[in-house]
Amino acid sequence: MPPNVDSSLSPELNEPTGRKLARQIKPLLTLISSRGAREGYLASIDQAVISLANFLATVILARMVSPTELGVYGVGFTSLRLVRSIQEGIVIQPVNTFGAGMDLPLFRRYVTSTSLIQMIFALFSSGAAAIGGWILTRMGNDVAGPALFSLWFAFLFWQLQEHLRRMLYTRGDVFNAVLNTTLANGIRLGVLVWWAVRGQLTGIGGLNAIAWGSLAALIPGLWQTRSFWTKDFGNLRDTWRKNWGFGRWILGGTIANWVSVEFYPILTAGMISFAAAGAYRALQNLVAPIHMLLRATDTFLTPRAARLYTTSGRKALNHNLSLTYLMAGIPILGLLFIAVLFPIPLLRLLYGETYVSYSSGMVLMAVFYLLWYAYWPLQTALKAARLSRPIFVANLAATMAMFTVGIWMIFKWGVYGTIAGQALNAFIVAVILWTAWVSLSRQE
């Protein structure tokens, strides 16, 4: 200490080491034990339950049914994601963005009218699946026809249960969302095991199990969200205009994302066989836990990021985005590393010998998921900042690539071409979104 400085005026210089360390660590402890952190842990558990259920369902089906039946399940599951993509644009993301900052009376009026719109879409999509499946079956397609027809059940009840679950997230009631998710997926897996034991399990059965689980969780979900409903709901036309004004670009982006990424397995089933689509599903299942992390960033962080942007602006959103990439990146990179190093032992452990011959495709799958991770959290920030147009443009460009280069890749390399095409599309989306984000940051 300089000789002319009175140490009594600088108490921090005489502070005991243990107390000083505790004072420095306290902000970190507060961060990891705050309400937001606890909700984040619950959201991770919620997504872990979903991811584990999807993983186990695929393992059960892969062991008990043929590759063709697994392909039927995989294509049907991908079709369910198409419905979710539309639901995200017209219902989920508008509620996340607008509803997060509303007081309860206003939220009740808004979300009740939005729920009526959700019910109309659920009925429409369910009816379309039933009619389309009936037509295909009558035309003699005894694989795709019955599979499409069976989706009416899942389209109807899964959407409604998912809508209630995401409403709970919007209002910060993550604990009840976890309970609802656990019930739905517990029933789903129980039904799968019951049919497997009785020797009645099929690819369509795997899809119906999702519907039974959702139906079982729908009734308690209505009770959990009872405080959100009101008879004095908003005008449906005004609510639709509000949702459409924001959600149309989200809708375009999510559909384009589904086409550019998720549609590849359906192309594989049509251009090669349902068995090839089953092989793709078996490979993808090795890295299924990554879905847990990526979906968690969208489900949990989008409404929180929207509130953060409203109160603190782009700088705070940038900080939140950096933390998201850091925290999600460590487990994602670790899982991809393990999958690339040990594909044959993992495939043999999970499925026996059936899909071991496809082990070389794991490197391509890892590249695809790495590129997916490169842009997925950024989408959350863009939606929170209500900048949804770049998402649509990026996925539209990727869709154009799929219907040109992507189809050629499938013809050329089969299942491996499917995965390579997905990786190419993810690269295109990542480049466009990051270019848009950097450009917008420089304008401020």
What does this structure look like?
About 2% of the residues have low confidence. The chain is globular and about 55 Å long. The longest helix is centred in the middle third of the chain and has 36 residues. By secondary structure, the chain is an all-alpha fold. It contains 15 helices and no strands. α2 runs antiparallel to α10, α3 packs parallel to α10 and α14 packs antiparallel against α15. It has one domain.
Furnish the topology, listing elements before pairings:
Layout (H helix, E strand, L loop, with lengths): L16 H17 L1 H30 L2 H33 L4 H35 L5 H27 L3 H24 L5 H22 L11 H36 L2 H12 L3 H24 L1 H28 L1 H9 L10 H23 L4 H25 L1 H29 L1
Concise overview:
This protein has 444 residues and is mainly α. The protein is 84% helix and 0% strand. It has one domain.
Low-confidence stretches: 26-32
Strand portion:
under 5%
Total DSSP helices:
15
- Rg is 24 Å
Mean pLDDT figure: 85
Biggest sheet features: none
Structure class:
mainly alpha
Domains (count): 1
Termini Cα gap: 44 Å
Compressed to H and E, one letter per element, the order equals: HHHHHHHHHHHHHHH
Total count of strands: 0
The percent range for helix content is over 70%
| Coarse shape | globular
